Amino acid sequence: MLHMRVAESRPAPAWRRLTAESVAPYLVDHELVTRRQLVDDGLAVAEFSRRNRSFRAANERGVSYLLKQGVGTERALTVANEASAYAFLHARFGARDAGAFFPRRHAYDADNNVLVMEFLRGAENLREYHTRTHRFPTGVATQLGRAVARVHALVPDWLSKPSEPPWALSALQLPAVGFLREVSGSNLQLVKIIQEFPEYGRLLDTLRAGWAPQCLIHGDLKWENCVVFARGAKTRKLKLVDWELATIGDPGWDVGSIFADYLSYWVFSMPISGDADPGDFVKLAQWPLTRMQPAIDAFWQAYANGLGLDRAARQERLWRSVSYAGG
């Protein structure tokens, strides 16, 4: 009994770096899971860290969390930014409506740089989904267009200044000294190729000069950050994840990023061979662009309609988005 009293009087632990073994105690300490739940139902924890330390904690009774911890100054800032983005979106839309297109935020622990979110059971990202099903359904693309439009209708209140143009619009044309010190041999070759075409550099200059930050953008909108999961027997639900780079930016960047993923999926499906005529590459693509065009159109129409863009605004936004896709 004395031992129990001593244990109960101890201060809450400083968690510092999470591990698979410390996730369950962490969730108990932050009142996201009870000790009785752990005893009765258990909790399966799996780590899948990449840029950040990330863990999935779930059981069959319905407990499901995704924990993301930013280690180091830069990662801590991006995780804090993502936490702010989720808080902003929930405040603007309400928990029920906001959860329609992004995961629920359960908690943010600023002291330990830990963000706790809803873990989406049975989810796969769009790249996995398209590859597995060999399909590019317009229904999913329409959901994506509507979700991006709802984001672009907002101006965030937790950021004090607009973003600078993305590195991709200048880093390869005029690389900094630090970039050259760390660049791989293949990327250095890419820089040399780009610099052989002055017109391409001028186009990048135009895009960089025309960067127009005006609304909330995801900032890293690619297929890997768009996840789908079963909602019914024949329908799929889509949500946007990984908001670490959310900022006040140019909406054409998000739209162009989606266009670029469709185009790159087409290009990289071409069987490149030194013995083949380059003119045959397009004909031999495993994923012909014509199969994707209905989905691309559905995405764009849902997006433009969702924002109520008039004809002139549609043309300007589409041109900028396609240009960013090329960049």
Q: How would you sum up this structure in a few lines?
A:
The chain is α+β, with helices and mostly antiparallel strands and about 325 residues long. It is about 45% helix and about 15% strand.
User: Multimeric state of these chains?
Assistant: single chain
What are the segments in which pLDDT stays under 50 over at least 5 consecutive residues?
1-12
* C-alpha Rg (nearest Å): 23 Å
Encode the helix/strand succession as letters. HHHEEEHHEEEHHHHHEEEEHHH
Number of strands: 10
End-to-end distance: 67 Å
User: What characteristic shape results from the CA principal axes?
Assistant: globular
The biggest sheet amounts to: 5 strands, antiparallel
Strand content: 5-15%
Compute the number of helices. Answer: 13
What strand line-up does the widest sheet have?
1-2-3-5-4
Structural class: alpha+beta
Helix content: 40-55%
- Average pLDDT for all residues: 87
Describe the protein.
A 5-stranded antiparallel β-sheet has the order 1-2-3-5-4, covered by helices on one side. It has a 3-stranded antiparallel β-sheet with strand order 6-8-9. A hairpin with a 4-residue loop joins strand 4 (105-109) and strand 5 (114-118). It is of the alpha+beta class and 327 residues long. It has 13 helices and 10 strands.
Structural topology:
Elements: H1 2-9, H2 23-29, H3 35-41, E1 44-47, E2 53-58, E3 64-69, H4 73-93, H5 95-98, E4 105-109, E5 114-118, E6 124-125, H6 126-133, H7 138-152, H8 177-182, H9 185-195, H10 198-209, E7 215-217, E8 226-230, E9 236-240, E10 247-249, H11 251-267, H12 289-307, H13 311-326
Antiparallel strand pairs: 1-2, 2-3, 3-5, 4-5, 6-8, 7-10, 8-9
Helix pairs in contact: 7-12, 11-12, 11-13
